[in-house]
Amino acid sequence: METTLRGVGVSHGVAIGEVRHMGTAVLEPPAKQIGPDEAAREQGRARQAMEAVGADLNARGHLAGGEAQAVLEAQALMAQDPELLADVERRVAVGSTAERAVYDAFASYRALLAGAGDYLAGRVADLDDVRNRIVARLLGVPMPGVPDSDEPYVLIARDLAPADTALLDPALVLGFVTEEGGPTSHSAILARALGVPAVVALPGAKELAEGTVVAVDGSTGEVFVSPSEEKRAALTEAAAARKAALAASSGPGATSDGHKVPLLANVGGPADVPAAVEAGAEGVGLFRTEFLFLDDSAQAPSEDKQVEAYRQVLEAFPEGRVVVRVLDAGADKPLDFLTPADEPNPALGVRGLRSLLDHPEVLATQLRALARAVEGLPVYLEVMAPMVADRQDAKAFADACRAAGLSAKFGAMVEIPSAALRARSILQEVEFLSLGTNDLAQYTFAADRQVGAVSRLQDPWQPALLDLVALAAEAARAEGKSCGVCGEAAADPLLACVLTGLGVTSLSMGAASIPYVRTTLAKHTLAQCERAAAAARATDSAEDARRAAQAVLSGE
């Protein structure tokens, strides 16, 4: 009998296939005691396993490239964390086996983060995956992970660790469904990058029986269990029609009445550039530079190394616009040479621009590298600072850019509610704004973007978030300056129309989403987008906002 379940659609497309479940997590090792003469051996085993898992995660990152590389390298830092290793060795010294010491040390760290309300609590899936990989290596059992199958399937999991998502084979994994996660979780972002249909935050997903046929609609968030032949045919037909429309879509982003909305790509490094160019990106709206710095958390990359990497991206978009975000370290992206190791709540502490202003030589080197990288290129370089809170922050960044001799536009990311509320003040110091809707939602609703239990508050359709977007866009328009969106909200075609109606001047997203957004924008006039935006803001919930905008744009 056909039934319908609803989660959060995070990656467009339709997948129909049999359910296969993610490999089960490693069982808890027995609490076996060892003698004092075995401690040194067990400590050595633990150390080797942690180093090996860290190296494996780094290798997976290099294979995956792009955004996935930064995520996996952050996981590798967890595996090789010296404080965790010291805790493991202490536990071995008092009688634990290597595997039990690892299990207990990670459990202690996990509980500490969750209890403190730390931002890193949102990375629990990542932390659990690292622990499971280390324990599996020590026990000599297969790593938990994607099931082996010769036939394509729909993958079901409680959550997907980045190490698994990054290397999914789209030829075998038709789509995936998770019980946890949210629209801006690592798995959701990587799914969009892969172009794999995905639904997250689906209650009861793990109860779907192995081998059951499901149809996953990554656009609506619906999962049809044992769909009828009629339902399969309808979904397949709709997917084919969308695919045909996408194939016919090309050119700059614009509404049907010619209002231009540049469609840009979010990239994590040179590896992401080919997909962006193929998708017809008009430039880069968010160039995350962290990938360079995560290669070695102990020291910043040299100026020459930075110049080489930046130039590879800049050269790919002649006459285009490339917006570079300077290093956004801290919270879930700690760097030994830059971020404090003992902050009780890093998300609300020294991160982003705050870290750079505390280490001006790191910021100055990066800005000089960008100035050198753009020399002689016909590209429009813009540089922006993450986590700008007020005009004082914006001025400090603009002053640093000028001191480095950077002849580019300077901008500020709006990720903190204070920046949206006082956007006009900030625009007295910088030339553009870029809305990071992922963090802006997180800070507006006090809802960690990685925690499935609060995913409804991370929904970018929340009217309160749309109000903040409107405030920033109105401020930019009043000052005659631009205001783009580079958060994941821009990847939702319907929401892209609403953002346009709110006054946003450009949209940046993962390359795979660009054709969907381009096609949808081209169907509606600017006036329709403005009416849809007003209708969405007049509601009191994300679901109602989406429904109201859809009604306007469909002519109901």
Automatic annotation (TrEMBL):
Keywords annotated in UniProt: Cytoplasm, Kinase, Magnesium, Metal-binding, Phosphotransferase system, Sugar transport, Transferase, Transport
Domain PEP-utilising enzyme mobile: 151-221
Named cofactor requirement(s): Mg(2+)
Location of the protein in the cell: Cytoplasm
Domain spans labelled PEP-utilising enzyme C-terminal: 252-524
Catalytic activity line of the entry: L-histidyl-[protein] + phosphoenolpyruvate = N(pros)-phospho-L-histidyl-[protein] + pyruvate
Pfam family for this entry, one: PEP-utilisers_N
Annotated GO MF terms: phosphoenolpyruvate-protein phosphotransferase activity
Gene3D superfamilies: Phosphoenolpyruvate-binding domains, Phosphohistidine domain, PtsI, HPr-binding domain
Phosphotransferase system enzyme I N-terminal domain ranges (all copies): 6-123
InterPro entries per record: PEP-util_enz_mobile_dom, PEP-utilizing_PTS_enzyme, PEP_util_AS, PEP_util_C, PEP_util_CS, Phosphohistidine_dom_sf, PTS_EI, PTS_EI-like
Main location: cytoplasm
Record has Ligase as a keyword: no
EC number: 2.7.3.9
Biological role: General (non sugar-specific) component of the phosphoenolpyruvate-dependent sugar phosphotransferase system (sugar PTS). This major carbohydrate active-transport system catalyzes the phosphorylation of incoming sugar substrates concomitantly with their translocation across the cell membrane. Enzyme I transfers the phosphoryl group from phosphoenolpyruvate (PEP) to the phosphoryl carrier protein (HPr).
Family affiliation: Belongs to the PEP-utilizing enzyme family.
NCBIfam families: PTS_I_fam (TIGR01417)
Protein name (Swiss-Prot/TrEMBL): Phosphoenolpyruvate-protein phosphotransferase
Source organism: Actinacidiphila polyblastidii
Phylogenetic lineage: Bacteria, Bacillati, Actinomycetota, Actinomycetes, Kitasatosporales
